[in-house]
Amino acid sequence: MSEIKCNFDYMYGHYRCHIDKQKLTEGQIIIKGSHVDGKTNKDVKWLDFSDCNFINFPRNLQDFFPNIISLRIDCSKLEKISREDFRKWKNLVYFRIENCGLKCLKGDIFRDLKDLWHISFKNNEIKEIEPEIIDGLTKLKHLDFRGNVNIDLWYDAGIKSNTLSEIKKEIKDKCKPKSDETNKIQKLEEKIEKMSIDIEKLKEENLRLNLLMEIVVAESSFKEFTINVGKTSFKIDKILFASQSTRLAEIFRDYPEAKEFKLEDTSEKTFQNVFDFICTNEIPENANLIELFVAANRLKIHTLIKAVAEILIENIDESNSFEILVIANRFNHDKLREKAFENIKTKIFPFKSLDENLAKQPEKLRNMIEMKRKIDQEFENLK
């Protein structure tokens, strides 16, 4: 059971619980925070989440805050929701989950929430929606599916927009859930694809091990070797470094009599970080992660590539997302590219639906970002 810090305040006259930048683990949670004088959990009407890390919605929140009328979740990693997550909030009228990772929506999600008039799933990754999702919602005035994979429509009763009939047709035509048989085929295809990737990794690992064995056989002892980077010379153990770096293993094999090697494409500080990682299996706190990721790829150190990528993914923000996208494309790292592009979509272009192909076109995306920032600056100067 995990503890979640909540900030209590007022928003447009409603007593609110705001949960910001929290990691919600699976299972039950406990809410911590100081109420405004005289208020209790039962007085909370609005519940807001922003920049939180959770895959499934914590159901016991309904017991903590039984009288919620507005639920807003923004820029979080929420991927799954179900009817049981919200069914006790009978008075809910405002429901918004935007800039998250939802992919599929069941038809019964809102079956118990007949008073809803505002629903938004803007900027998620929705591909499948069961057609009966808004059946029975007679008070609905606003419905937003813009910025999703298979649907990009919205309805507002007071503004010129798509109609509910158009949205229902789009859901039926383009968001039809796949049959069990289709899902089985897709999972099989994904498994085959993963196996293919794993096979390629095994081939490279096998190559590295063969190279290492050749080096071990050729050496009568664990001889030292010098790698010169800039003005600094690093004394290394050939066997240790060959066991981690495929590129160094190739160099040691191809030049068995060499005593030293000059590394041209890495800075002294970055190679020191590489050196420390190979010797201690830890990434120094002051390391430049972008430069370290580049060096790890050049030297083909797969354990370091994986470790740095995980840290980069956890720390992607508006200031570094484009730079991370560039190196992800340069070294064809799919997961890093996906997360960097997701941040660009939600943080830099929150009101624009970006073509997914732009994730692999960094130069084109760079021009778009520079133009947006220029326009934003011009607006700022007018104030």
Protein model, in words:
This protein is α/β, with parallel strands linked by helices and 383 residues long. It has a domain at 2-177: Ribonuclease Inhibitor (Leucine-rich repeat, LRR (right-handed beta-alpha superhelix), Alpha-Beta Horseshoe). It is 40% helix and 16% strand. Strand 5 (46-50), helix 1 (61-64) and strand 6 form a beta-alpha-beta unit. Helix 3 runs parallel beside helix 5 (246-254) and helix 6 packs across helix 7. It is elongated.
Give the SSE map.
Layout: E1 2-5, E2 7-11, E3 14-20, E4 29-32, E5 46-50, H1 61-64, E6 70-74, E7 94-98, E8 104-105, E9 118-120, E10 128-129, E11 142-144, E12 154-156, H2 164-174, H3 180-218, E13 224-229, E14 232-237, H4 238-244, H5 246-254, E15 260-262, H6 268-280, H7 289-299, H8 302-314, H9 321-330, H10 334-348, H11 362-382
Parallel strand pairs: 1-4, 3-5, 5-6, 6-7, 7-9, 8-10, 9-11, 13-15
Antiparallel strand pairs: 2-3, 11-12, 13-14
Helix pairs in contact: 3-4, 3-5, 4-5, 6-7, 7-8, 8-10, 9-10
Organism: Polypedilum vanderplanki (Sleeping chironomid midge)
Domain BTB: 223-287
Keywords: Coiled coil
